Q: What sequence folds into this?
């Protein structure tokens, strides 16, 4: 009898407060929400969390930046018309980037540090590009390779020692 009363009270509280569970929420490591007039930008970078509870007055999530629930659509990304190889990795003095599979066209490559600052950018139609790494300190970098026609990007991690 006591269990049924507790169950009834929990169910009643759930109905009264309007709390529900929603899946596919984002557990953020970084987020930003800006609104100016009718324009609103909301950005969240993170990983999926499972539970989000909300009512008219409160939002309770496992996330850091999630003021409202939203769902997103999953779409297939376009396939890059080229394959890339680069090396050596880890590198000390230089890294050589090679476009493979007979790609013909203009492409560009960027060297980006861990804070997202672009340190070097080069554009070419040649199948091989060589970055000089001696001006840069040891650390983790990203190499982004773009096809100029389609705008498709491939990204790689590079360790400079």
A:
């Amino acid at each position: 009898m006591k269990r049924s009363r507790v169950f009834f009270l929990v169910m009643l509280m759930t109905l009264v407060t309007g709390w529900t569970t929603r899946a596919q929420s984002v557990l953020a490591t970084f987020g930003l929400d800006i609104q100016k007039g009718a324009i609103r930008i909301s950005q969240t970078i993170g990983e999926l969390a499972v539970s989000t509870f909300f009512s008219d007055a409160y939002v309770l999530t496992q996330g850091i930046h999630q003021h409202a629930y939203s769902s997103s659509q999953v779409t297939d990304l376009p396939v890059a018309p080229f394959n890339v190889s680069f090396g050596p990795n880890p590198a000390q003095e230089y890294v050589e980037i090679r476009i493979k599979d007979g790609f013909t066209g203009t492409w560009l490559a960027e060297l980006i540090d861990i804070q997202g600052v672009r340190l070097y950018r080069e554009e070419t139609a040649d199948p091989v590009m060589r970055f000089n790494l001696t001006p840069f300190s040891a650390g983790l970098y990203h190499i982004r390779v773009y096809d100029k026609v389609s705008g498709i990007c491939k990204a790689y991690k590079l360790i400079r020692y």
About this structure: The chain has two domains: 2-61, 83-160. Residues 2-61 form one domain.
